[in-house]
Amino acid sequence: MRELLTFDICQMEIYDNHIITTVNEGIHLTSDDNNILIEVAEKFFSDSKFVYISNRINSYSLDPKVYYETFKVKNLLGLAIVSSNHKALGNAKIERLFFKKPYKIFSDMKEALLWTDELVSNSPN
Questions:
Q1: Is residue 57 a contact partner of residue 20, using CB atoms and an 8 Å limit?
Q2: CA–CA separation, 35 and 82 (whole Å)
Q3: CB of 67 closer than 8 Å to CB of 90
């Protein structure tokens, strides 16, 4: 891990080719909150491609409009959702409709990390 960032709404683990975010319990994510991701991406991945991994161990809600802004992050290759919660997985399937880059849902982090490595290694420089 390169860095661990803690915010009021989440914790972000920064690695060489991905970010793992764990949103705090009970949060409602809005487009304004999504600006944190955009700022972190600009700071840590200004010259490299990366994957965003959402580690959904807590219950929270999300305004689907955040995906429109997230999609605009040019060096973002894809989005992985990791959860074993049935409701969170159902929400992720609906959210997939709003994101126009590679988007995959996983039940464990190892699978998400393998997909991340594959996505990054198969991406043109």
A1: no
A2: 21
A3: no
Each domain of the chain, given as residue ranges in start order, spans 3-121
Architecture label for domain 3-121: 2-Layer Sandwich (3.30)
d(C-alpha 70, C-alpha 76), whole Å: 8
d(CA 50, CA 44): 10
d(CA 94, CA 109): 20
CA distance 15 to 2: 5
- Name which of 56, 62, 57, 61 is nearest 80 in CA terms: 56
pLDDT, one tens digit for every residue, the chain (125 residues): 899 999 999 999 999 999 999 999 999 999 888 888 889 988 999 989 999 999 999 988 888 888 778 878 889 999 999 998 877 767 777 777 778 899 999 999 999 999 999 999 999 86
